[in-house]
Each structure stands twice: as structure tokens, then as C-alpha cells.
TrEMBL record:
GO molecular function, one term: hydrolase activity
Listed InterPro entries: AB_hydrolase_1, AB_hydrolase_fold, Carboxylesterase_BioH, Epox_hydrolase-like
Protein name: Alpha/beta hydrolase
Superkingdom in the source lineage: Bacteria
Source organism: Streptomyces kaniharaensis
AB hydrolase-1 domain: residues covered: 31-260
Length: 275
């Protein structure tokens, strides 16, 4: 992590629970808010954040409802609900406009915020997101339901996905410890409720992009196992958002972890364009 210590955890109470976040506080241009994906924590960006801060950017990362250091039990875990948390955090920090980065599940969140509150969003970045994915056929819906049930009742399945599928190429040096921590967290009391809430949320909304007017960037790992044709998904999102597309060659579902340098280069070029 380039020897840069992580900023200390802060908390924000909102209706329904408490959100954990951190903030590097200083930097040029619009602050960058990094949102992790489903069942993950803000530490997903532990290798990317130092590269962005070294380039002079203010970086904020937030744990999602139910995971990390945020409170576990909420009445709504959907990407749309998380969008209200992002706006509450911007208000709390006195930030008028920010660039929002969503990973996987929270790609839908940043699209939602950009459509609902365009005056607050300087740009959005989708990292291996599901936005604008066509509706699944009956077979795929059944497969997804089975996988969701396994995640709720068998946390080791999340470890299997991380170790066997999500990282087809390079892995960060702390990979094993990080995955072990994710799996252990899923076994804590109340986490089944949060996991169930996440796996049932609509992470692939069709049509939300129509309301987005801000600059957008689509970043996709070329070997993302969640999509049969990752580049085709990225092309569809880029067309819907009038966005630029960057493919991270050899990366899986988490390019900010398996190739943080290439991901940082893509984000920094976009941030320069939105300045």
C-alpha cells in the first residue's frame, strides 16, 4: 500500500443506522468517493487510495450498510438506499460536488445519485458494474437465486468465489488475509440479514442511465468472470452513459486490487478531464 497509512475511521449516523467512512481531507479538485461492492468493505480500495492521494486527490471511502464497520442491520440494503447514504455523507462533509466511483453492486448507486442529484456529482466511474445488464432468462435467474442462497447460508462460498474466480490473474500480496477477513465477517451475528439484503438488491437496473448528464467512465477487467463477455457489457454501459471505456487487460472483477496502477491511471486521466 505504498507505505501510506489509512486514515482513521469516522462515523455518521443516518436514519436506520451508522455509516463508517474515512477521509484523507486534503487534495485538489473534486473529492473522490469510493464505494465498495457487495459483501465487501472500503478496504477494497486499500491499494488504489494511496495512488490517488499521491497524485494530489482527496479520497473518501465508505463502508456499505451491513458490512465493514457500518452497522449491520438495516431495513433496506439496495443500491438505491445506499445512494441516500452517499448524499448524506456529502452533506455531512460539506462537499458540494464529488466524483463517485462504484464497484460492482454500487455501480447502480453512483448512477442513481447522478440522476437524482446532478448538481452534487462532477462525474461517475463504474468499476466492473452490472448497470444496463439485460434481464436474465429463467435459467440464469435460478442460478443467481441458488448462488444467493449459498452466500447467505455458506460464507465459505464467498471465499471460493474470491479465490477461484474473481482474480484470474495477479493477486495483491495480502490477498489470503483479506479474503479470510471477508469470510470471517460474514459469520458475525446478524450478517445473514445483511447478506440476504445485498444479494436481493437490484444491482443491474436498466434505464437509470437515461437521467445521467455528468461525465462518466466505464472501467472493466478483461477477464471479469461475472460476465461472459466483459467488453460487451462495458460497451453497452459506455453507450448508455456517453462514457469513455477502459479495459484493464488481464484483470478480474476487482481491478482496483489486482491492477491498482492501471486503475489509478484510468481514474486520474478521467479526473483531469472533469476538472
Amino acid at each position: 500500500m505504498n507505505g501510506t497509512p489509512a486514515p482513521s475511521t469516522q462515523f455518521l449516523d443516518v436514519p436506520g443506522g451508522r455509516l463508517a467512512f474515512d477521509d484523507t481531507r486534503q487534495g485538489d479538485g473534486a473529492p473522490v468517493v469510493l464505494l465498495p461492492g457487495m459483501l465487501d468493505t472500503r478496504a477494497a480500495y486499500r491499494h488504489l487510495r494511496p495512488l490517488l492521494t499521491a497524485a494530489g486527490r482527496r479520497v473518501i471511502t465508505m463502508d456499505l450498510r451491513g458490512f465493514g464497520e457500518s452497522s449491520i442491520v438495516w431495513d433496506d440494503y439496495t443500491p438505491a438506499a445506499i445512494a441516500t447514504d452517499v448524499l448524506a455523507l456529502l452533506d455531512h462533509l460539506g462537499i458540494e460536488r464529488a466524483v463517485l466511483v462504484g464497484s460492482s453492486y454500487t455501480g447502480a448507486t453512483v448512477v442513481k445519485v447522478a440522476g437524482d442529484a446532478p448538481e452534487r456529482v462532477a462525474g461517475i466511474v463504474l468499476l466492473d458494474s452490472f448497470v444496463e445488464n439485460p434481464p436474465q432468462n429463467a435459467l440464469m435467474r435460478g442460478v443467481v437465486r441458488v448462488m444467493g442462497t449459498m452466500l447467505v447460508h455458506w460464507p465459505a462460498f464467498w471465499g471460493f468465489y474470491q479465490r477461484k474466480l474473481a482474480y484470474p490473474g495477479a493477486r495483491p500480496a495480502d490477498f489470503d488475509a483479506y479474503v479470510n477477513g471477508l469470510v470471517a465477517a460474514m459469520r458475525t451475528p446478524g450478517r445473514k440479514t445483511a447478506t440476504r439484503g445485498h444479494v436481493s438488491g437490484d444491482a443491474a437496473p436498466v434505464g437509470w442511465t437515461a437521467a445521467v448528464r455528468c461525465p462518466a467512465l466505464v472501467v472493466m477487467g478483461s477477464k471479469d468472470p461475472d460476465f461472459p463477455k466483459p467488453e460487451a457489457v462495458a460497451d453497452r454501459q459506455a453507450a448508455a452513459l456517453n462514457a469513455r471505456k477502459v479495459m484493464i487487460e488481464g484483470s478480474g472483477h476487482y481491478p482496483m486490487a489486482d491492477n491498482p496502477r492501471a486503475t489509478a491511471d484510468a481514474l486520474l486521466a478521467f479526473l483531469a478531464e472533469t476538472a
